[in-house]
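How a chain folds remains the central question behind the approach discussed here. In the encoding step, the backbone of a single protein was reduced to a row of integers, each denoting a local shape. We regard such an encoding as a compact summary of how the chain folds. The sequence in question and its structure tokens are set out directly beneath this paragraph:

___
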Amino acid sequence: MSFRHKLLALCCISVLVGMSLTTIIALVGINNLSHSATTQVESGLTTANREYLQNYIRANVNRTNLLLAKEISDSQMLTAYAQMLEDNKDSFGPLLNSNQLPTLLRDTLKFDPKTGTYQTEVSDSSVVTVMPSQIGADGGQLTAKLENTIRQTALLDLLFPLIKKYNPQKNRIAYIGPPDEVYRRAVPWTDYATSFAQAFPQSYRTQSLLDYEPRASLRRNWESWGSDPVAKAKLATEVTLTQPFVDAFIQQPIVLFSSPVWDPNRTHVRGEVVFDWTVSQVTDLVRGLHIANSGFAFLTQADGNVLAINSENEGLLGLHSQTHVTSTGLNVVERNLSQSNVPALTNLRMPGDDNTTFSEVQINGQPYQLVLQRLAPLNFLSADGSNIQQSSWTLGFVVPKQELLAALDKTQHAIDDNARGIFQFQLAATFVALLLVVVMVYLLSQRMTISLHALAVAVGKMRQKDYDVQVRVTTKDEFGEVGLAFNEMALAISHYTHHLEAEVEKRTLQLRDANHQVLELNELLKSENTRLKAEVEVTRKLQEMILPREQELRLVQGLDIAGYMQPADEVGGDYYDVLQEEGRVKIGIGDVTGHGLESGVLMLMVQTAVRTLLASNETNPTRFLSILNHAIYDNVQRMHSDKNLSLALLDYHKGKVLLSGQHEETIVVRSNGDLELIDTINLGFPIGLEEDISAFVGEKEVNLAQGDLIVLYTDGITEAENVSGEQYGLARLSIAVQTYRGCTATEIEQAIITDLRDFIGTQQVYDDITLLVLKQE
């Protein structure tokens, strides 16, 4: 680029920077104004939306509370009527036993041999059912006491049909009698006996109606109020609800509204009034609620189980419906927020008071407004039937935040359009100013760049390797000084280029020699790596060759033996051996510190030393280990190594085992499953660590009966870790030995290794694994 062009660029950049700063300042001002406006609009919208959502959710909570309150009121009214009949049964007795009693109030019970029950005919106002548990499995006459008890509630037929007629949400209205004369009076008329026999074919003939849930749990909790009036006083009403469950007869979700009818002393329950209330009225109300364009409502229990929600919104909240039977035998639909795959909902807490709660949650990466309002507290039977306590359902709204702030988006778009117009005006002004500057600078620079042009021509010739070029200097200003400096530089370059080719050739020869030396070193390294690999392979093969063969192990009389070893590297540092010499059996297991070539060589030394001492008829454990340690210690010192090993030796003869040497704890499992752990810390000292260990060597005798087990192992098993960093451990190993003690030694060894591999999984094995199983035959 010529000087003239640079001058033009400098001026243009200056203009652009100035105009850009002006534009930026204007845009910053607009942005601040936009931020202030949107903040005010957002604040107003947020307040308005909160008020709207709060009023809307409270209105629907009140609607739902009214529905439930009506059922509570009906239940209280009918219970009060039944209580009046119970308290005044002596007064109503003459009327109910009179022949003048209207047909409407007469109960005609007939025996059904098919179901073994007594039940009224279809023409009666209500259906009265007496189950076989009250009359005997083979049928029989109703007792006078039971008939009298049934007649005492005949007046309920005056109210039952009316309440059912004007509140169809009550699927059934029933009264269940006292424990000593259990019967059921209900409307509308249904063949309850046949339906009950089909639902519970195995138990309906022997069990009372009060033995089935939730009847049994309700009566048990009500009876506790008789002895604990304080617990009863804490509740606003005696009406008790069950959690929604799928009714076995109509296969629809229902809630039981139940309340007790007491004896005159108010200590024992004589009967109960029950509404089988279908929850469809509440669920339809919730599913019919719509907020904004795509907002929706849901109803949940206190524990987070969703009772009502539109099916298309279940997936949005990450819910999964499943049916299960509770501990009280009720078939419930489980759809709990704690099991949602939306993280923001799994730990959602229901409101603890009557205030409306607002929170923002992220669902599928989008912000949603979550509004919660609890319903009025009611008495609920707990899911396990253990108590009756007050609890509340909660109504929730889920609304996309974007829909609530739609007006804010419109305001933001309008401000952005105005900012874009201002930016376009500033851009046009900058272009005009830039054009004027270019024209003026071009005219001024033409007179200033004659000398620079001549210098540029000379530089171009030098680029074409014409190093003898010279610039004619006609001025004494700064441009003339540049021309003189260029001429001097051109002469220096011309001188240097004549000697450059010889210098390049010299450097090339030096680089060729250095490269040849690098190639020779690479070949030498390859040869050394091949030799080391061969040595490692030979050591690994030697380890495999000296391990006891299966046919050798079978030759040991009185013992069933199985062994396993897996090195962590190509060469391991674990050791085990089973040797026989003139009727004597020597069993050894050890673990060299670390693993790899050096540890493997030390293991081979130990095996050779043990076999040599056994062949030399050395039977004393103290001398045996002391001589072995001395030999290994000397070799370790010669090798300048820091390796040592734990080593345990077992001398076996006709069911007796003499244990010596320090290693992992020895596992002994008796044939009856009893577990013994023998600590070897006081039976020896690490081999190769000190020159003389005779003072540390001890002995432990173990007697084996038929079926008893001894298991030896290295810490590669107990310290093996799974992907979570948890170790396999001695306890898990001991349990595995106890579990498979009845199998052969080989089967026990395979079962333990399989259990270990299942525990480790995909985790890398960092240490050698060795296992030796000895079983007395």
Residues 3-87 form the longest helix (85 residues). The two ends are 100 Å apart (CA to CA). The mean pLDDT is 84.
